[in-house]
Model the fold of this input.
Amino acid sequence: MVAILLLLAMLASCAPASTDDPSNSQPAVFIENKGSDTIVNLALAWAERYQTVKPEVILSVTGGGSGTGIAALLNGTVDIANASRQIKPEEIADAQSKGFTPNELVIAKDAIAVIVNPSNPVRELTLQQISDIYSGVYSNWSQVGGPDWPIVRLSRETNSGTHVYFLETVLRLGQKENHTFFSSETLLLPSSEGIINEVRLNPNAIGYDGLGYVPKDLKMIAIAPQAGDAYILPSIESVNNNTYPIARDLYMYTAGQPQGEVAVYLDWILSPEAQQIVAELGFVPVK
Done:
């Protein structure tokens, strides 16, 4: 599990120094922010920049997966939960049984890139072919026009919002009645970095990751929604014009309407300054 803790300022430095009148010092405000590993690097970058905007606010940012963040919100141990999937109806019901309705904020957009080792000559796949690879219908790259190599399937773990989204959108092709599941031979890895490293080392591997995490030394597969459609690579442009078929919103959740400094921080996240950081990290701004 990714656990990245950013303590952005020492308590003593959070308020303006004042030797003449200590009452002018502002107490530090702490905001706990936890969840999606897809969002964690973006949240860390935001937290670092926000220190220059409001030095008295200390943001603690940790990963662990969307499910972990939402569970922490339901348990009352975080102020903001990051999620790369929408909150589930049963999670909303759990929150309401505890006296609040989660508030949803779309903070960026993301493309999920399907990636392979550069030595793999396969460049294009349909959604159905990717579903058949991950469900175990295909087990050799020769079945999708590649070399006679066994396919090694890589996925995020089940508490990952990216795992859930990929299951519902790719393996099940967005069909609610479809109950296709990952092959039992799929290797579940705890982080985006784990998938990147395994694909880099293994020419037989296929994985998926948020566009902002994919390094230039790996190959992204161009994807067609159906056979006969155009094959599209993930990019900010193909997400914005709705041509890339595996794109999603990214979310932050609070326990009811955000209040106080949490509300101020979430408003800043939608500002041009914060949304520029979204683009710089390879995600797609919402504004």
